[in-house]
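MODEL INPUT / OUTPUT PAIR
PAIR INDEX: 1
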Amino acid sequence: MLKKKLLILFFLALTSLSNFATHIVGGEIYYDCLGGNNYKITLKIYRDCFNGQAPYDDPASIYFFNSSGVLITEVQIPFPGSIQLPVTINNPCFTPPTNICVEEAIYTTTVNLPPIAGGYDITYQRCCRNNTILNIVNPGAVGSTYMAHIPGTGALACNNSPRYNNFPPIFLCSGVPLNFDHSANDPDGDSLYYELCDPFTGLDASCPIVGPQTNTSAGCSVTPPPPPISFIPWQAPYNASYPMSASPAIAVNPVTGMMTGTPNMVGQWVVGVCVREYRNGVLISTNKRDFQFNVVNCPGLPVASIPTQTLFCNGYTVAFTENSINAFSYSWNFGDPTTTADVSSNQTASWTYADSGTYTVTLIINPGTLCADTNWSTFYVYPLLNPNFAIPPGKCIYENSFNFSAAGAFMGNGTFNWNFGANATPSTSNSQNPTDVVYNAPGTYPVTLTIQENGCTRSVTHNVNVYPKPDALYGLQTAIACDLQPVQFIDSSFTTNGPLTYQWFFGDGTTSSEQNPNHSYPAIGSYNSSLIITTTNGCKDTFALPSPIAVYPSPVAGFYVTPKDTSIFYPNVSTFDQSIGSIDCDMYWGDGSMSTNCDTIHHYAKPGTYTLMQVVVNANGCKDTAYSTIIIRPEFLFWIPNAFTPNNNGLNDIFKPVVLGVHDYNFLIFDRWGEKIFETHDMNEGWNGYFKGRLCTNDVFVYKIDFRDDVLNNVHQYIGSVTLVR
């Protein structure tokens, strides 16, 4: 019941084909050499045989031209009758309809053709094709031409042309893969090469036939135009190599003639196939056949399909998948001749072959049922192709030269293709182990190795590093170098490639690895210095000062100080210069002050231990320093008067104690009622007798003073009275 419903749907999909015009749908010419310059000519013509078709030519006129296009002879072959071809479709699960048919008429004749230079071109021309063809512009006005070539004199005389073995299926199901054997045979055993090609056009609708039936009253010629013949006008986007809508596209195996592809649009399509005949590498003739495919919808058809192989040179284990239509069971045969265990009933499977080779894999879907379908696919098994190469260590730009060696998994018989990049010389190589590759600039460069082997291509890319040369440079902190005094070397080297290591040569037999060393020269003289810097990648550069370092004598600092130990009550210290060879002398007293005279006296304001520093300079600018330590011992003193007269006469106007050697000082004044009228923490500030801007009256006031002494840091407090006399 299900099959009946599917057939009804199938017939409905085909009803539009009944409107196709009944015209020529294909043909070919081939010949056999009978000896004695006699040739049997065979013309096969295919046409629609439904709905009042035009009759076959009776006779069919065949014309023979020389290589210059001159007509040599013509023959008329009587109509031999025709047969109806089986209505085939590319899936046996359905029966093709009976209201569509194709007839075949085979015309034969024998003709004597003496050898001539360039041979003969045999032609048969006719009009026209079906109006409903989709891949030709104005198809109802486009004719057909079928040709064959007979070689001329020489070794190729008495040749037999190739002829096709099978006529393609009349119907193709849309979405169903096509696997049709379009091969030919050649009686001479010549080499055959297959390809899709452009069909020839032919006569047009105004003069559809030549020969005895020619309508000369309409101005039609009794002979056809000579070769070369124009090709059919393709309707974009179709052409000889893509003649019809299909995915994968229709293709012909050049060696086997197997035609494959999956049509995906309903309609009529013209396809041209050529078989070229070669002998000892020389092209003898070409048999061009065109035919018409009728693509229809076939709902529910089971279609066995094996995806085209995409992985090559991936080792001996191959994974198999299927993209069949309406499949519910599976039967795989992996084509391994070494065993009978190379089968599987799983939907997807894998097989490990014993060796590389070419294997025909078979998939049957729905085996043992009416709707079984079979698909074959050729798989090419090669060893794992996995190229690699060792990454050479990086090199410095001034000495870079790289060697490479192909490694990894490959058989060694593959167009090694190295690409080193535009900055390399050479930039490419076809050697397995290229050497002496040099880069013209620092950088990180991708190197790609591509190996092509057994039709497979694999690539691997690694980076090589070319390191920049660093720039060594340094100077001196001061232009003057003095004996027994350190010379400061200042590095200003530059690199873009990580930290540097340093090797200094001072010219006196000593070295250093510091970045900015200082060095004391042991004697007066001239010294040549230099620096070698090295990056982490081993790249080096050297720099030397253009002039030697001149080392001058230094002065000798010295001074005498007195006293070295004294009280804060006697804080004056004297110094006497005792330096030798100096022209300038500076004294630094250790309390933040200095003097440009080293024979002088300095007053210390606070007790403490002070380090004195003398700096002397000679005429060459060389310096020396001397040091001495003094002690100003802390002592404290407190005394306060008991009266004062704030009358602005300059005598006894301010009331304040006398204190020395103290800290944390506080001084307060209170009136007789206990109100605070004055406060200070400055030992040099006293009370002027005023409160709130007015001079106080004669009276007795209370003072309170506290502080810590500098000797033992003890707290002292004094409370007493003072009399203000105006």
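PAIR INDEX: 2
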Amino acid sequence: MLSAQLLYFLGVVFLLAGTSAPRQTWLPWPLALGLAFLGVVLHGFVSWRAFVAARGRSAYYRAEKRAFLSAFVLFVFFLYGLDLKFYLKPLMFADTVEGLADLAGLAIFFMLLVVSWLTGRVRHQELFYEPMGRLAFVWQQLRMNLPLVLPWVVLVAGLDLLRLLLPAQVFALVPTPWNELLVFVFFVVVLLFFLPPLIRKLWSCRPIPPGPLRAGIEDFCRKERFRAGLYYWPYLGGHALTAAILGILPGLRYLLFTPALTIALTKDELISVTAHEIGHVRHHHLLWYLALFFAFSLCLLVIAPLVSLSILASSFFPLALRGLALPPETVADLLSAVPVLVLVLLYFRFVFGFFFRNFERQADLYVFTAMGNADALISSFHTIFRASGRVREKRNWHHFSLSERVAFLARCQKNPALIQAHQRKLRLALLAYALIVALCTGLALQPDRETLAARAEIQYIEAVLLSDATRKPQDAAPLLMLGDFYLSKNLEDKALHNYEQALMLAPGNATLLNNLAWLLLTAETNGMRDAARALVLAKQAAILAQEAFILDTLATAYWAHGQIAVALELEERAKKLDPDNKSFYQEQMDRFRQQYWQEKP
């Protein structure tokens, strides 16, 4: 069950990290609050129906998955449909930190899960015989799920803390995003030390007391020259039939057994399960998981911006912006984040899942090294079959089914060459993975990103301003900004069109009159220059506002009409109004004089 929950948490974390806060919401806050409340009610009803229909423990686990899915869908609606990041913006403290807002978003997802857990509490008590109050039950579920996101929580909080404590120059020593990757590596190393004991505490694991059970496991571990703490693991109330190993470093490594497993298995069967867990350590599986994750993260660090730029530069983005009644930032985040999120989930579901399943199989095979044969491990799987009331178990994304594992162990027992064949298969798969990641990273670095980024910037800003102009048809400000933007990109035809449209709405806007006059004076497009009209517009602007940049435009208009003395006088006035830029106005005066003497017969 925890593996399915991990994918949902992964999706939530990724969407929070990849979504920015929009400038404004598309719904008034009372309506957004009402829709959020209705969404929570509907989510609670869906979860309740799922748990009510659960007639056994397996059905309860399936109901939990449906409740998680319902919470995830509602969270996505909050994030993009109701502009959740906009309401979390105050937690960014003027963009000085980002992690606090993301942590608040994660807390909201946990609140949705609390609604699910409360609807399933009664059914849980009936099926697992654990009478618990509401607060105790919610706390138990939180403790079980929190370790799945604890590394990200520590990373985000730590990164924000470093941003606040360290000077910006320190981060500037390494270019973005590599500085964040280095910080990420640093925190992962730190987590290797602190996370295992913290998770052990959260999961309420308690030491296996002295006795035959502990003595038998310790004797086997000494024989294998293996050191780890031995603990009971109350996973699913201790009723689950499973074991796990936690931690890489010997002094911070723990072998966890659920009480139900220690009761159901014989001594030899329990030793074979211990051999399986030791096999994970002998084959360095946790380190391989970290390597696989780091390699994919590095690849994603290169691919994700390329995907985002390609979408923003495509013709699909303006269509989506017109079709979705959402803020432009939200649409951009949605279109950029969702494809990458799908890639991440597919990666974990199929690529990471492939290695996970085959590492588990490799750990199974260690029983031949530790015990000489797989009889006890096969027997333990059969015991789990019977104890769990299942004849067969379906394969999932991270484990082969128990029946598949039994069949493979039996084949290896008859033909030991299959053991080495599996080791070779994994080595080749890891090599192929490294080559594919390197190839994808290299290919993603090939496109001309500067050109693509420029196209994406033009299209994004254009789409945002067009969206504003469409939503505010009687407001000249978006048209003025759109005209200014086009002028800055030398798209003079479009700039002129938007200035003219804005002028019909706001004929007394001094900045608009000035900018249109400047365009008519400096345009490179054939037939667009109109010095006579520019002078009229510049005069109107100067009457409305005595600003230095407006006087400069008026001076240029007079100069275009050959009235150099008037132009020089206006530039002198501009210098006094704007002394910080007097060098610019002096250059204008020198240009006017030079042009005058060159043209004088």
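PAIR 2 NOTE: Residues 472-599 form a domain with the Serine Threonine Protein Phosphatase 5, Tetratricopeptide repeat fold (CATH 1.25.40.10).
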